[in-house]
Design brief:
The chain has 271 residues and is of the alpha/beta class. The chain has one domain (7-266): NAD(P)-binding Rossmann-like Domain (Rossmann fold, 3-Layer(aba) Sandwich). Helix content is 48%, strand content 15%. The protein contains 9 helices and 8 strands.
Length: 271
Protein backbone atom coordinates (compact mmCIF):
# COMPACT_ATOMS: atom_id res chain seq x y z
CA UNK A 1 0.00 0.00 0.00
CA UNK A 2 1.30 3.45 -0.95
CA UNK A 3 0.39 6.96 0.14
CA UNK A 4 -2.57 7.03 -2.22
CA UNK A 5 -3.84 3.66 -0.98
CA UNK A 6 -3.26 3.41 2.75
CA UNK A 7 -5.89 0.72 3.24
CA UNK A 8 -9.34 0.56 4.78
CA UNK A 9 -10.31 2.72 7.76
CA UNK A 10 -13.38 2.44 9.98
CA UNK A 11 -14.34 5.50 12.04
CA UNK A 12 -17.11 5.36 14.63
CA UNK A 13 -19.21 8.41 15.44
CA UNK A 14 -18.41 10.00 12.08
CA UNK A 15 -21.59 11.96 11.43
CA UNK A 16 -20.30 15.24 12.87
CA UNK A 17 -17.59 16.99 14.87
CA UNK A 18 -14.24 15.31 15.41
CA UNK A 19 -15.42 12.02 13.89
CA UNK A 20 -16.58 13.65 10.67
CA UNK A 21 -13.39 15.71 10.37
CA UNK A 22 -11.30 12.60 11.00
CA UNK A 23 -13.12 10.52 8.39
CA UNK A 24 -12.60 13.24 5.77
CA UNK A 25 -8.93 13.73 6.72
CA UNK A 26 -8.24 10.01 6.45
CA UNK A 27 -9.98 9.88 3.08
CA UNK A 28 -7.83 12.77 1.86
CA UNK A 29 -4.71 11.02 3.17
CA UNK A 30 -5.39 7.94 1.03
CA UNK A 31 -7.61 5.62 3.06
CA UNK A 32 -10.85 4.10 1.89
CA UNK A 33 -13.07 5.23 4.77
CA UNK A 34 -16.21 3.78 6.30
CA UNK A 35 -17.88 5.96 8.92
CA UNK A 36 -20.62 5.11 11.36
CA UNK A 37 -23.51 6.82 13.09
CA UNK A 38 -26.50 5.44 14.94
CA UNK A 39 -28.81 6.51 12.10
CA UNK A 40 -27.54 7.08 8.58
CA UNK A 41 -29.45 9.30 6.14
CA UNK A 42 -27.13 8.78 3.16
CA UNK A 43 -24.66 5.98 2.55
CA UNK A 44 -22.03 8.16 0.92
CA UNK A 45 -20.79 11.65 1.76
CA UNK A 46 -17.62 13.37 0.52
CA UNK A 47 -16.05 10.03 -0.37
CA UNK A 48 -16.84 8.46 3.01
CA UNK A 49 -19.17 5.46 3.07
CA UNK A 50 -21.56 5.91 6.01
CA UNK A 51 -23.09 2.90 7.73
CA UNK A 52 -25.42 2.54 10.70
CA UNK A 53 -24.01 1.13 13.94
CA UNK A 54 -24.92 1.27 17.61
CA UNK A 55 -21.70 0.63 19.53
CA UNK A 56 -23.71 -0.46 22.58
CA UNK A 57 -25.21 -3.39 20.65
CA UNK A 58 -23.14 -6.52 19.98
CA UNK A 59 -25.20 -7.59 16.96
CA UNK A 60 -25.00 -4.12 15.39
CA UNK A 61 -21.21 -4.05 15.79
CA UNK A 62 -20.83 -7.54 14.33
CA UNK A 63 -23.05 -6.67 11.35
CA UNK A 64 -21.03 -3.51 10.68
CA UNK A 65 -17.65 -5.22 10.70
CA UNK A 66 -18.93 -8.05 8.50
CA UNK A 67 -20.31 -5.50 6.01
CA UNK A 68 -17.00 -3.63 5.80
CA UNK A 69 -15.08 -6.86 5.26
CA UNK A 70 -17.48 -7.97 2.51
CA UNK A 71 -17.27 -4.58 0.77
CA UNK A 72 -13.55 -3.90 1.23
CA UNK A 73 -11.97 -7.26 2.03
CA UNK A 74 -9.97 -6.00 5.00
CA UNK A 75 -9.78 -3.49 7.87
CA UNK A 76 -6.45 -1.75 8.40
CA UNK A 77 -7.44 1.01 10.78
CA UNK A 78 -10.10 1.42 13.46
CA UNK A 79 -10.69 4.86 14.96
CA UNK A 80 -12.86 4.61 18.08
CA UNK A 81 -14.37 8.08 18.19
CA UNK A 82 -18.01 7.52 19.27
CA UNK A 83 -18.73 8.87 22.73
CA UNK A 84 -21.02 10.96 24.91
CA UNK A 85 -20.46 13.44 27.73
CA UNK A 86 -22.00 13.95 31.15
CA UNK A 87 -21.75 17.07 33.32
CA UNK A 88 -22.77 17.06 36.96
CA UNK A 89 -21.78 16.08 40.47
CA UNK A 90 -20.77 12.44 40.65
CA UNK A 91 -23.51 11.60 43.15
CA UNK A 92 -26.13 13.22 40.91
CA UNK A 93 -26.01 10.28 38.51
CA UNK A 94 -27.62 6.95 39.26
CA UNK A 95 -25.71 3.73 38.76
CA UNK A 96 -27.95 3.08 35.77
CA UNK A 97 -26.90 6.36 34.16
CA UNK A 98 -23.22 5.70 34.90
CA UNK A 99 -23.51 2.26 33.29
CA UNK A 100 -25.08 3.79 30.17
CA UNK A 101 -22.16 6.24 29.90
CA UNK A 102 -19.60 3.47 30.26
CA UNK A 103 -21.53 1.34 27.75
CA UNK A 104 -20.84 3.91 25.02
CA UNK A 105 -17.47 5.35 26.00
CA UNK A 106 -15.74 2.20 27.27
CA UNK A 107 -17.60 -0.94 26.31
CA UNK A 108 -18.35 0.51 22.87
CA UNK A 109 -14.59 0.73 22.32
CA UNK A 110 -14.15 -2.82 23.61
CA UNK A 111 -16.88 -4.16 21.31
CA UNK A 112 -15.50 -2.48 18.21
CA UNK A 113 -11.92 -3.46 18.98
CA UNK A 114 -12.74 -7.11 19.65
CA UNK A 115 -14.78 -7.24 16.44
CA UNK A 116 -11.95 -6.04 14.16
CA UNK A 117 -9.06 -7.89 15.80
CA UNK A 118 -9.61 -11.28 14.07
CA UNK A 119 -9.26 -9.60 10.65
CA UNK A 120 -6.22 -7.62 11.74
CA UNK A 121 -4.53 -10.72 13.15
CA UNK A 122 -5.09 -12.59 9.88
CA UNK A 123 -3.51 -9.66 8.02
CA UNK A 124 -0.66 -9.49 10.56
CA UNK A 125 -1.19 -5.74 10.39
CA UNK A 126 -3.46 -3.14 11.90
CA UNK A 127 -3.76 0.10 13.81
CA UNK A 128 -6.33 1.07 16.44
CA UNK A 129 -6.63 4.74 17.39
CA UNK A 130 -8.68 5.44 20.51
CA UNK A 131 -9.94 8.96 21.13
CA UNK A 132 -9.22 9.79 24.73
CA UNK A 133 -8.99 13.26 26.28
CA UNK A 134 -6.82 15.33 28.56
CA UNK A 135 -9.51 14.38 31.09
CA UNK A 136 -8.01 10.90 30.91
CA UNK A 137 -4.90 12.42 32.50
CA UNK A 138 -6.21 14.93 35.02
CA UNK A 139 -9.03 15.32 37.58
CA UNK A 140 -12.28 16.72 36.23
CA UNK A 141 -14.62 18.10 38.91
CA UNK A 142 -18.26 17.78 37.84
CA UNK A 143 -17.16 15.45 35.05
CA UNK A 144 -15.98 12.64 37.31
CA UNK A 145 -17.88 9.90 35.50
CA UNK A 146 -16.90 11.11 32.02
CA UNK A 147 -13.27 11.43 33.11
CA UNK A 148 -13.46 7.92 34.54
CA UNK A 149 -14.38 6.56 31.12
CA UNK A 150 -11.36 8.27 29.58
CA UNK A 151 -9.04 7.05 32.35
CA UNK A 152 -10.36 3.55 31.61
CA UNK A 153 -9.61 3.94 27.89
CA UNK A 154 -6.08 5.07 28.72
CA UNK A 155 -5.36 1.95 30.78
CA UNK A 156 -7.08 -0.37 28.32
CA UNK A 157 -5.29 1.03 25.27
CA UNK A 158 -1.82 1.07 26.77
CA UNK A 159 -2.18 -2.50 28.06
CA UNK A 160 -3.75 -3.81 24.85
CA UNK A 161 -0.93 -2.35 22.78
CA UNK A 162 1.54 -4.61 24.59
CA UNK A 163 -0.66 -7.65 23.92
CA UNK A 164 -1.03 -7.00 20.20
CA UNK A 165 2.42 -5.91 19.04
CA UNK A 166 3.35 -9.56 18.44
CA UNK A 167 0.64 -9.66 15.75
CA UNK A 168 1.76 -6.51 13.96
CA UNK A 169 -1.05 -4.45 15.51
CA UNK A 170 -0.54 -1.19 17.41
CA UNK A 171 -2.95 0.67 19.69
CA UNK A 172 -2.46 4.41 20.23
CA UNK A 173 -4.27 7.21 22.06
CA UNK A 174 -5.20 10.68 20.84
CA UNK A 175 -5.84 13.19 23.62
CA UNK A 176 -7.58 16.46 22.66
CA UNK A 177 -8.44 19.31 25.02
CA UNK A 178 -11.40 21.60 24.32
CA UNK A 179 -12.62 21.37 20.73
CA UNK A 180 -15.16 23.51 18.89
CA UNK A 181 -17.92 20.96 18.44
CA UNK A 182 -21.50 20.53 19.70
CA UNK A 183 -20.16 18.49 22.64
CA UNK A 184 -21.40 20.98 25.25
CA UNK A 185 -24.85 21.20 23.65
CA UNK A 186 -25.20 17.41 23.66
CA UNK A 187 -24.06 16.78 27.22
CA UNK A 188 -26.24 14.35 29.17
CA UNK A 189 -27.73 15.86 32.33
CA UNK A 190 -27.63 14.00 35.65
CA UNK A 191 -30.76 11.97 36.28
CA UNK A 192 -31.13 12.93 39.95
CA UNK A 193 -30.17 16.60 40.34
CA UNK A 194 -29.25 17.77 43.86
CA UNK A 195 -29.81 21.44 44.71
CA UNK A 196 -26.60 21.87 46.68
CA UNK A 197 -24.58 21.37 43.47
CA UNK A 198 -26.58 23.81 41.33
CA UNK A 199 -24.22 26.80 41.61
CA UNK A 200 -21.00 24.85 41.09
CA UNK A 201 -22.50 22.83 38.23
CA UNK A 202 -23.66 26.00 36.49
CA UNK A 203 -20.24 27.58 37.01
CA UNK A 204 -18.45 24.61 35.50
CA UNK A 205 -20.89 24.61 32.60
CA UNK A 206 -20.02 28.25 31.93
CA UNK A 207 -16.29 27.51 32.05
CA UNK A 208 -16.81 24.61 29.63
CA UNK A 209 -18.88 26.67 27.20
CA UNK A 210 -16.29 29.45 27.08
CA UNK A 211 -13.42 26.97 26.69
CA UNK A 212 -15.15 25.23 23.79
CA UNK A 213 -15.83 28.55 22.05
CA UNK A 214 -12.09 29.30 22.03
CA UNK A 215 -10.95 25.70 21.62
CA UNK A 216 -9.29 23.93 18.71
CA UNK A 217 -11.09 23.25 15.47
CA UNK A 218 -12.06 19.59 14.91
CA UNK A 219 -9.54 19.52 12.05
CA UNK A 220 -6.69 19.93 14.57
CA UNK A 221 -7.72 16.68 16.25
CA UNK A 222 -8.33 15.03 12.89
CA UNK A 223 -4.82 15.86 11.70
CA UNK A 224 -3.42 14.35 14.90
CA UNK A 225 -5.48 11.20 14.35
CA UNK A 226 -4.08 10.88 10.82
CA UNK A 227 -0.58 11.21 12.25
CA UNK A 228 -1.32 8.54 14.86
CA UNK A 229 -2.81 6.29 12.18
CA UNK A 230 0.05 6.53 9.71
CA UNK A 231 3.22 6.80 11.82
CA UNK A 232 5.57 3.91 11.03
CA UNK A 233 6.72 3.83 14.66
CA UNK A 234 3.76 5.25 16.57
CA UNK A 235 4.02 6.85 19.96
CA UNK A 236 1.85 5.58 22.77
CA UNK A 237 -0.19 8.80 22.97
CA UNK A 238 -0.63 11.97 20.94
CA UNK A 239 -1.73 15.26 22.48
CA UNK A 240 -3.97 17.07 19.98
CA UNK A 241 -3.50 20.82 19.98
CA UNK A 242 -1.53 23.38 21.97
CA UNK A 243 -3.63 23.24 25.13
CA UNK A 244 -3.56 19.44 25.22
CA UNK A 245 0.24 19.50 24.93
CA UNK A 246 0.48 22.06 27.74
CA UNK A 247 -1.82 20.08 30.04
CA UNK A 248 0.11 16.88 29.39
CA UNK A 249 3.40 18.62 30.19
CA UNK A 250 2.10 20.31 33.34
CA UNK A 251 0.54 17.10 34.65
CA UNK A 252 3.88 15.32 34.39
CA UNK A 253 6.20 17.99 35.72
CA UNK A 254 4.32 20.45 37.96
CA UNK A 255 4.17 19.52 41.67
CA UNK A 256 0.82 18.00 42.62
CA UNK A 257 -0.22 20.73 45.09
CA UNK A 258 0.43 23.44 42.50
CA UNK A 259 -1.47 21.59 39.80
CA UNK A 260 -4.34 21.05 42.25
CA UNK A 261 -4.59 24.75 43.13
CA UNK A 262 -4.46 25.79 39.48
CA UNK A 263 -7.15 23.31 38.47
CA UNK A 264 -9.50 24.48 41.23
CA UNK A 265 -8.93 28.13 40.35
CA UNK A 266 -9.62 27.56 36.66
CA UNK A 267 -12.74 25.54 37.55
CA UNK A 268 -14.10 28.37 39.68
CA UNK A 269 -13.80 26.34 42.90
CA UNK A 270 -12.50 27.67 46.20
CA UNK A 271 -8.74 27.15 46.59
Amino acid sequence: MNKTNLGVALVTGASSGIGRATAKALQSAGFRVFGTSRRVAAESSDGVTMLACDVTDDASVTKLVERVQVDAGRIDLLVNNAGIGLLGGAEESSTTQAKALFDVNVFGVLRMTSAVLPAMRRQKKGRIVNLSSVLGLIPAPYSALYASTKHAIEGYSESLDHELRTFGIRVVLVEPAYTRTSFEENLVKPDRLIDIYDAARAGINGVLRKAIETGDAPQVVAETEVKAATASAPRRRYAAGKMAREVSFLRRFVPEFMFDRSLRKQSGLSV
